[in-house]
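Task 17 of the worksheet. Students: predict the tertiary structure of the chain below and write it out as structure tokens. Keep your answer in the requested format; marks are given for formatting as well as content.
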Amino acid sequence: MLRIDFSHWFDVPLQGRELALQNYDAIRLIEWGNKYINVTIFNSWLIILLIVGGAWLATRHLSVNKQASRWQIALEALVLWLQKEANETSGSRTNQYLGMAMGLFCFILTANLLTFLPWFRPPTASLSTTMALAAVVFLAIPYFSIRNAGIKGYLKKFIDPIPLMLPMNIFSEFFSVLAMGLRLFGNMLSGVMFASILSAFVPFVAPLVMQTLGLLTGSIQAYIFALLAVVYSSSVKEEIVPQEIT
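Model answer:
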């Protein structure tokens, strides 16, 4: 039986002492049988829809002349900036990391910026979302490594500098990506909690100040996560074989 209930979607999250971590995933908006869509999943879809819609608005009338729209100019500036950052970070002359970095950056940035709405529960303050983003990076590491250096070159890094380092290198790769998800989750959830606690004492001034500060920290978190994804994904590069001078 299908059940739809959006009555709690507009509730201000984490009010007063209700600081339980399950609050973000426990509110079910749509249920049918044993399956359901909670607030975290629904808000994630909403963010993806906003990103796709914004990209469509910016590119529906592409132009190479001086009549380019403001949307197109803004999107081009964002892409060129992130392209420059990704290439400088990875040391690559190609744009192979740009799609991943752009997707992660736009999703996290949009989710964090929407916290300016007092009723919006950002998916990035849910551990399930940040771990899913970390899983994307975890899968991207072998993909780009094998693509650039082959499977032999990728496996070689686990026994570098000596084979005894194999267990340590495996744990290092796993926990480095795990730390990315935990860091993003901790920073975003702590900001929401801190704002809700201050709201109980200063209900009008504190939310505005904290939300404004959250816009800055949310942008920084999106930037850091995207660049760390590029750093880890570009850890194995194609070996350059010097050519003989004839």
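Marker's comment: Residues 2-233 form one domain. The first strand starts at residue 2 and ends at 4.
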